[in-house]
Design brief:
With 109 residues, the protein is mainly β. Helices cover 0% and strands 46% of the residues. A six-stranded antiparallel sheet has the order 6-3-2-1-7-8, with no helix packed on it. A three-stranded antiparallel sheet has the order 9-10-11, with no helix packed on it. The radius of gyration is 16 Å and the shape is elongated.
Length: 109
């Protein structure tokens, strides 16, 4: 099945510690049903110094389950459910509330 959330989408966090947060999807792991969202679910990790990196405390984002994320409507910026339909022979995503097509971030160029 095609993923309803893709890299580059603006998303809203529905539940959990980061409830209400918004951000852009940096990476999607479809086999694990998780995604990394910029600025959301940040944790601190203590790292040992190596030849390439300095040691210390670094902050990084951890993956969130796709089930707690909702795509933001391109029309008004509110969270919306996503559906699929055919437009000019191509399968596209659309916002179910407004009916507006959600532009694929990697093909919007």
């Amino acid at each position: 099945m095609a993923s309803k959330i893709r890299k580059g989408d603006k998303v809203f966090v529905r539940s959990g510690r980061n409830k209400g947060a918004e951000g852009e999807v940096l990476k999607v792991f479809p086999e694990r049903a998780r995604a990394i969202v910029a600025g959301v679910n940040r944790v601190k990790r203590h790292t040992k110094a190596t030849r390439e990196t300095d040691g210390g405390i670094i902050e990084k984002e951890l993956p969130l389950p796709l089930s707690v994320l909702m795509v933001l409507d391109p029309k008004d910026g509110k969270p919306v459910r996503v559906g699929f339909r055919l437009e000019e022979g191509k399968k596209t995503r659309y916002a179910k509330r407004s009916g507006q097509t959600i532009v694929d971030p990697k093909h919007s160029g």
